Amino acid sequence: MCGIVGAVAERDVTQILLEGLRRLEYRGYDSAGLAVIDEHQTIQRSRVKGKVQELADTFSENPFRGRVGIAHTRWATHGEPNVKNAHPHICRDIVALVHNGIIENQETLKKELISKGLEFYSDTDTEVIVNSVYLALQEKDDLLDAVFKVCEQISGSYALGIMSKIDPDRLIAVRKGSPLVIGVGVGEYFIASDVFALLPVTQQFIFLEEGDIADINRDQLIIYDAKRNKVERSINISRLNADVADKSGYRHYMLKEIFSQPVAISDTLEKRLNNKLIANNIFGEQSDEIFTKIKSVKIVACGTSYHSGLIAAYWLEEIAGIQCHVEIASEFRYRNSVISDNTLFVCISQSGETADTLAALSLAKQEGFLSTLAICNVAESSMTREADLVFLTKAGHEVGVASTKAFTTQLVALYLLVISIAKQHGLSKADEAKMVEDLQSLPGRVNHMLQYEDEIKTLAADFADKHHALFLGRGSMLPVAMEGALKLKEISYIHAESYAAGELKHGPLALVDKDMPVIAVAPNNHLLEKLKSNLQEVRARGGRLYVFADRHSNLNNSDGLEAVQMEADYDHTAPILYTIPLQLLAYHVAVIKGADIDQPRNLAKSVTVE
Ligand code: M6R
Predict the structure, then answer these.
(1) pLDDT tens-digit readout, 339-396
(2) Is the CB of residue 470 less than 8 Å from the CB of residue 512?
(3) Is 304 in the pocket of ligand 1 (CB under 6 A)?
(4) Mean pLDDT comparison of 235-239, 293-297, 463-467, 547-551, highest-scoring range
(5) Which CATH fold would you assign to the domain 250-427?
(6) Is the CB of 606 within 6 Å of ligand 1?
(7) In sequence order, what are the beta bridge partners of 497?
């Protein structure tokens, strides 16, 4: 999704802006640009379609300097990815602006602005903002007042960085519906879409709140809230490390992140267990007390995080006997759902900034849920600030757009949640201790699953020329199959579908032939024999099967069936284990296909617009 960086300093800020953009690359983008106000008080701009490195190369051919600047990586929403649509956008060499979000009333505004003589050079919705600020400046003669006025005219979501040559030492930052942080330096300030972009220059951050507008000079920062009152916002010291984003010798971030799962899982468990049992109140103050009242749980999330929620529903109903509904955030937020008494609302998000999930959380807070809980990987995110209860997964910074370690640590968090709830509803100490033991052995067992990489790599070669794939699972392995299909389509661009294996004969079997590889996850559990029958249905129709099975599943290599027999004894944590081979399969298929694994086309890491 679009990324914003900005700076006001005594020094030249162009390299800070470029480095900030590099650090936002993981969010996904298709064009990039930067602009500064130079020593002649002229706005200088450089933009490219493509990568930040191309921007850096273009910039170094025609460099400029400036002490106030803004920069942007664009993920196209209005208008195709090209130079004219890349940000910053400029109006009449007076105002320059970068934007993350969507302006919903842009068509009306554009007509009005054109009727007033303003010109448009791009297909973006952003240009209405920069032109409106220019127009307001003619009347107000003050950049901040002009921005106040424009914020009343535009509707939608927007994080903005705005500068003008009429006030060349000033930067205005606006946050409404899209994230924006302010980095506090010594005699300098920065803005960015996330903390990570600014870690090389500061560890001190102010998180703007919804509707805030910041008026930034080198030596002064004034923040106005949504009602335009001056407000103080506290400074937070980030504990993130500027260096976390190196590949540590791996070819791609995604592979590094797959292999860091044992550590990410043990970090997530740290301090959450006590004497072989779950520690008290790990989901927040008085969470155990709240859990005693729970009659049902509503889980809301998007994408991979939604899949983790689906697995949690199997656990919750089976282990705690508590009813659980799981819903996609973009659906939940636009329908009238019936909320029964004493329902806990749980949102799951790696980034904590996903627009639909955030909107669902805001809605939930008005809707009479028992309490709201955010399971999130980013401590300094909008979701963790908004929810009543918070559980942080400790996956560390996830750079690859395809989520891997965030997913498995979400599952660990959700399993802890289920046990914590079940404890308050009659789970025996012996059962709790057994589940905790399974969790404690998980890092080692995940590590073992990673050892099948070479075998999986060999299988991946079979997929490189395929256009479709079908993933099958039963029970809690169905969401694992869904996640496997999502990973494959995201990074290798192979069309992949997932089905409950029992549904095969109700339709999808018609698709099966020798060109449709069928992938199944087959742990040795009570559904194994049922699954085997489903696999027979595939083989009888000439389908080629790839089965990730427990070594005791008795599924052996034979004509039309490739089995990876794994040491993966079955317990409730099996969905976590069986996710690993599917991640590796997707990764190696994408490597063979030469795809852009860490930044797949059209996708963004953190989806901060609807
Ligand atoms: O940051 P979130 O967990 O809220 O993101 C939700 C989805 O956008 C995300 O999981 C997406 O599906 C991933 N690219 C999947 O790999």
Answers:
(1) 999 999 999 999 999 999 999 999 999 998 999 999 999 987 889 999 999 999 999 9
(2) yes
(3) yes
(4) 293-297
(5) Rossmann fold (3.40.50)
(6) yes
(7) 470
Query: pTM higher than 0.85 for the full model?
Result: no
For residues 509 and 297, what is the distance between their CA atoms, to the nearest angstrom? 34
Atom from ligand 1 closest to the CA of residue 301? 4
Superfamily the domain 451-599 falls into: Glucose-6-phosphate isomerase like protein; domain 1 (3.40.50.10490)
357 lines ligand 1 (CB under 6 A): yes
Map out the domains of the chain as residue ranges.
3-237, 250-427, 451-599
Query: Which residue out of 299, 307, 350, 603 has the highest number of ligand 1 atoms within 8 Å of its CB and is therefore the one to mutate?
Result: 350
Pocket test for ligand 1, best of 354, 490, 493 (most atoms within 8 A of CB): 354
pLDDT surpassing 80 at residue 1: no
* The domains spanning 3-237 and 250-427 adopt the same CATH topology: no
Q: Does the C-beta of 8 come closer than 6 Å to ligand 1?
A: no
pLDDT digits (tens, 9 = 90+) for 222-254: 999 999 999 999 898 877 666 665 787 899 999
- The closest residue, in CA terms, to atom 12 on ligand 1 is 303
Distance from the alpha carbon of residue 375 to the mean position of ligand 1, in angstroms: 13
CA distance 132 to 396: 40
Q: Is 404 in the pocket of ligand 1 (CB under 6 A)?
A: no
For 450, counting Cβ atoms within 10 Å of its Cβ (0-12 exposed, 13-18 middle, 19+ buried), the class is: middle
Mutate to test the pocket of ligand 1, among 302, 361, 411 (most ligand atoms within 8 A of CB): 302
What region does 141 belong to: left with phi over 0, alpha with psi -120 to 50, or beta? Answer: left
Active site residues: 2, 605
DSSP-H helix ranges across 327-463:
329-332, 355-366, 382-386, 405-423, 429-440, 442-450, 453-460
- Quick: pLDDT tens for 481-533: 999 999 999 999 999 999 998 898 898 888 888 888 999 999 888 888 888 88
Share of the chain above pLDDT 90, in %: 76
| CB of 354 shorter than 6 A to ligand 1 | yes
Strand 3-8 with 68-74, pairing: antiparallel
- Tell me the fold of 3-237: Glutamine Phosphoribosylpyrophosphate, subunit 1, domain 1 (3.60.20)
Burial of 523 (0-12, 13-18, 19+ CB in 10 A): buried
pLDDT value of residue 244: 60
